[in-house]
Design goal:
With 377 residues, the chain is α+β, with helices and mostly antiparallel strands. Helix content is 50%, strand content 16%. It contains 12 helices and 10 strands. The protein has helices at residues 7-23, 26-34, 41-49, 68-80, 87-101, 104-115, 230-265, 277-305, 311-336, 346-351, 354-359, 364-374; strands spanning 121-124, 140-144, 147-158, 165-171, 182-188, 194-199, 207-218, 222-223, 267-268, 271-272. Strands 1-4-5-8 form a 4-stranded mixed sheet, covered by helices on one side. Strands 2-3-7-6 form a 4-stranded antiparallel sheet, with no helix packed on it. A two-stranded antiparallel sheet has the order 9-10. It starts with 6 loop residues before the first helix and ends with a helix.
């Protein structure tokens, strides 16, 4: 198990850090918070030209043929700069399952569009309970030959307002297990009777309720096999959890760096506050927490990269990242004193995104349950 970066990976990390520092300063993040779209189309195209949107696609689909670990490195840098936009929803939630489970026709049609920045995607799974469980999938997909007709609602669909396609999880049948009878549909977002309603959130992320009112879907728009789609959902949630963990890891590192710099510069009682033991211990604890997240992240990502993903290692990383992100932001705010509690300070940009990051690809409780099962509980 070797977590050191290759020369190419180190070059990717440096390129991403330099690009994002220039193209996505915190002033840009604040600007996008107020923008209805929530992202900059020009930056999106620039990222496509750098090859980021198709980073791990084979060259035949317009990609760069990189590995999953390369995508983790890229998302860490995006988290460091809290990059606004639909990268996670498009690449992590939809492009990866398309690459793994799509038919040759689907991959030929959709993957080059994503790589070129011509199509934005999102994933629709959660419903009224907000839980990522097969038993909670109520969206009906009724066969009315030759089509399936979708009827029902999805909640917390990220970036639905700018998505060209929605990868929707529906129920086409019943079986002995809740996982039986699950099917994934590729839905054109501009189809008649697909309606969207914004859900305001404290994190400022773009979440929507998407309603499907008798939306007819041809069988060609099914991803994978009919009634056996929960395996694809598991695939999506595992990889998305690791990539969200990478994003959180980068964000935590940025918060630690800002707090450390502030402790060296802020003078109180004629000395930097970093010279006081209370601040030193606080920063030491923050460093240990960040390192723990990075270790668990790389361990989980390494397993995926070698084709042997470990569900409990993935869940351990996501559960730890969820908790550390909140703790480290709160500790940073405390170290900054009164200024840390203002929305004008950069720390606030990270703290307001804590809950959004926690619930993406599974909250802490869900992932601790996975780890508990590993213990035989």
């Amino acid at each position: 198990m070797d977590f050191s970066f290759t020369e190419e990976q180190e070059m990717l990390r440096i390129l991403a850090r330099d690009f994002l520092a220039k193209e996505c300063p915190r002033a840009k993040v604040r600007e996008m918070d107020k923008d209805k779209r929530g992202y900059d189309p020009q930056m999106w195209q620039n990222m496509a030209e750098l090859g980021w949107l198709g980073l791990i696609f084979p060259e035949e689909y317009g990609g760069m043929g990189a590995r999953f670990m390369d995508l983790v490195i890229l998302m860490e840098e995006m988290g460091r700069n809290i990059l606004p936009g639909p990268f996670f929803s498009t690449v992590a939630l939809c492009a990866l399952p398309l690459l793994e489970y799509g038919s040759s026709e689907q991959k030929t049609k959709f993957l080059p569009q994503i790589a070129k920045g011509e199509a934005i995607w999102t994933f629709a799974l959660a419903e009224s309970s907000g839980k990522y469980r097969a038993s909670e999938v109520k969206l009906r997909a009724i066969l009315e030959k030759p089509n399936y007709v979708l009827q029902g609602d999805k909640l917390f669909v990220t970036d639905a307002h700018i998505a060209d396609y929605i990868l929707a999880v529906g129920r086409t049948g019943e079986g002995k297990r809740p996982e039986d009878g699950i099917t994934l549909f590729i839905v054109d977002s501009d189809r008649p009777n697909v309606k969207m309603e914004a859900i305001p959130t404290i994190g400022g992320d773009r979440q929507f309720k998407v309603s499907f009112d008798s939306v007819a879907m041809p069988k060609d728009n099914i991803l994978g096999n009919i009634d056996n789609g929960w395996d694809i959902v598991d695939f999506i949630l595992q990889r998305a959890a690791v990539l969200k963990c990478a994003e959180v890891s980068g964000a935590c590192q940025a918060v630690l760096d800002m707090t450390s710099s502030y402790a060296k510069e802020r003078i109180q009682f004629d000395r930097p506050i970093g010279s006081f033991q209370a601040i030193q211990h606080k920063l030491a604890d923050m460093l240990v927490e960040v390192e723990a997240v990075q270790y668990l992240l790389y361990q989980a990502a390494w397993g995926i990269s070698i084709g042997s993903p470990s569900p409990w290692q993935i869940s351990a990383a996501k559960a730890k990242a969820n908790e550390v992100y909140q703790r480290i932001c709160i500790e940073s705010i405390a170290a900054h004193g009164a200024i840390g509690y203002t929305m004008d300070h950069d720390i606030g940009l990270y703290y307001r995104r804590v809950k959004a990051a926690e619930f993406a690809a599974g909250d802490t409780d869900l992932h601790k349950e996975v780890v508990a099962r590993e213990l035989g509980l």
